[in-house]
Structure formats: structure tokens, C-alpha cells
């Protein structure tokens, strides 16, 4: 059985709906993990996606964040939010809010988490500390599935480049988030928990970047980062027969600033 699983930070599912539907029809993923919906769960375009044969489990509150799992293999055991997921206390808030950044589902033979890891903003910012706490909660949340025999993966926008090879110029990121040793150590902790980074093929270019800023011609100059990641357990990794970044989906006007990452499994 061949199963195609993908992840894509869509950067507003409402604004990118035509792009999403076009991509679902052309790439034909069996499971698609989405991040940064920027819409409430009940505002997700369920019907438009259902017409293409997909069910959707969405988790969002509007404005920012938001995650979903889109599947044509069924959706079972849906879980919204990580167990014990920390919240973020904004400057103008009285209570820390648990943001819609994680959703899990079993889709046929595979279980997945779609995650949108906090950005971190700046190294000395409270959001950075929140990011590290969130990542530790993620690690503890996946231990059981990571050790299991069922193919399992955490896919999404991690807002971390695992190595210096995953950014176009390490010097340009010196002192910034996304590349700090502490953030990268959190990814190492996922590996120690039993998950492996599935690195996609770069195809046309020598680096499999997944994100390019809208500004300063970053995409045509390939000044990107690999921050959209797939971490799978042994059963998942052993089944991988191909993986790639679909750069074509990043081209043109009205696109997300991220490209989909596709993983094909032979189960």
C-alpha cells in the first residue's frame, strides 16, 4: 500500500483556498497536515475539500495559528492540543492562552501530529521561552507513539532549521531565533525520543529549503530555510520510499511563503 503524506504551512487557508484545492488535485496526497490556518475551526472550507474526497479535522480560533489534518484515509482518534500544552501570556492578557498549534489523527495505517511550533520572536523574548517549553511538551507527548510499531510522524512548521546547512547563509541568522543551539537541542531530544528527521530530496536545487521570505526576491534567489519538517518513528522511516519539497507550489502570485513537503510511504 502506498501512502502519500504531506505537510504545508498554508499561511491562511482562506486566502490560499484556490491554491490548496489545485494542489490537492495535482499532488493527490492521502494525508495533508496544514498549519497557520488563520481561521476559526468552523470557518474551515470543509465542503470545498470534501468535494475532492477529503475529510478534515481542524483546530483554530481565528486570526493567527490554527492547524488541521486533511485525509482521504479516514480520521480517527482526533486529539486537539498536546496533553498539558503550555499557553502563552501576551503582554495585554491576564491569563496565558493555549493556542491552536497541534492536532493529531489516525489516518488509515498511519498516525500523525500536525504541529505549528511557536516562532520564538527574539532570543530574550518571553515567546522564546514559551517555544522551548512547548517543544519539551511535544517531546513528552510523542513518546508512546514513537516507541510503537504503527507508522507515526510529527509533521509541520517547526520554526527551527536543524543545522547550518538548512539556511542559505548561517551568518545572516547569527543571534536570531530558529538556529540557536537550545532550539536545535530540542530537535535532538525528539530524535532521542525515537523520531528521525526525514530529509527531502532537493530536486533542482542543492538544498531542500521549505520557506522563503516574500521580500527581497528571496524565492527566486533561493535564500530560504528548511523549517517544515517530518519526524517519524522507525516504522514510518522504514516505509519511506521518497520525499521531496514541492517548490512548484511556491511559485507565482498569491502563494504561501512555504512549500509543501511530501513523503511517500510503502506500507
UniProtKB/TrEMBL annotation:
GO terms for biological process: DNA repair. It is an enzyme of class 3 (hydrolase). The record marks 258 as: Interaction with DNA substrate. Pfam families: Exo_endo_phos. Probably binds two magnesium or manganese ions per subunit. One of its GO terms (molecular function) is endonuclease activity. Signal peptide: none annotated. It comes from the Bacteria. Its EC number is 3.1.11.2. The record marks 228 as: Important for catalytic activity. Its cofactor is Mg(2+); Mn(2+). Residues 6-258 form the Endonuclease/exonuclease/phosphatase domain. Keywords: Hydrolase, Magnesium, Manganese, Metal-binding. Mg(2+) binds at residues 9, 36, 157, 159, 257-258. The record marks 159 as: Transition state stabilizer. The keyword Metal-binding applies. The active site is at 116, 157 (proton donor/acceptor), 258 (proton acceptor). PROSITE patterns: AP_NUCLEASE_F1_1, AP_NUCLEASE_F1_4. Belongs to the DNA repair enzymes AP/ExoA family. NCBIfam families: exoDNase_III, xth. This is Exodeoxyribonuclease III. It comes from Kitasatospora camelliae.
Amino acid at each position: 500500500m502506498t501512502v502519500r503524506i504531506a505537510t504545508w504551512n498554508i499561511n491562511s487557508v482562506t486566502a490560499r483556498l484556490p491554491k490548496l484545492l489545485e494542489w490537492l488535485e495535482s499532488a493527490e496526497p492521502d494525508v495533508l497536515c496544514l498549519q497557520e490556518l488563520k481561521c476559526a475551526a468552523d470557518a474551515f472550507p470543509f465542503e470545498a475539500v470534501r468535494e475532492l474526497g477529503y475529510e478534515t479535522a481542524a483546530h483554530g480560533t481565528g486570526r493567527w495559528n490554527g492547524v488541521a489534518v486533511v485525509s482521504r484515509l479516514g480520521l480517527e482518534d482526533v486529539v486537539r492540543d498536546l496533553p498539558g500544552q503550555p499557553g502563552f501570556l501576551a503582554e495585554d492578557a491576564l491569563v496565558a492562552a493555549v493556542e491552536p498549534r497541534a492536532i493529531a489523527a489516525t489516518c488509515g495505517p498511519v498516525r500523525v501530529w500536525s504541529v505549528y511550533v511557536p516562532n520564538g520572536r527574539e532570543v530574550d523574548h518571553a515567546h522564546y521561552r514559551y517555544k522551548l517549553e512547548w517543544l519539551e511538551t511535544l517531546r513528552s507527548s510523542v513518546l508512546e507513539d514513537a516507541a510503537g510499531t504503527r507508522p507515526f510522524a510529527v509533521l509541520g512548521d517547526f520554526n527551527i532549521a536543524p543545522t547550518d546547512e538548512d539556511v542559505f547563509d548561517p551568518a545572516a541568522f547569527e543571534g536570531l531565533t530558529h538556529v540557536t543551539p537550545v532550539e536545535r537541542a530540542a530537535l535532538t531530544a525528539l530524535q532521542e525520543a525515537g523520531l528521525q528527521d526525514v530529509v527531502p530530496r532537493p530536486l533542482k536545487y542543492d538544498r531542500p529549503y521549505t520557506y522563503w521570505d516574500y521580500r527581497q526576491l528571496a524565492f527566486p534567489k533561493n535564500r530560504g530555510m528548511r523549517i517544515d519538517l517530518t519526524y517519524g518513528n522507525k516504522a514510518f522511516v522504514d516505509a519511506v520510499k521518497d520525499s521531496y519539497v514541492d517548490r512548484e507550489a511556491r511559485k507565482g502570485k498569491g502563494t504561501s511563503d512555504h512549500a509543501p513537503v511530501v513523503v511517500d510511504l510503502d506500507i
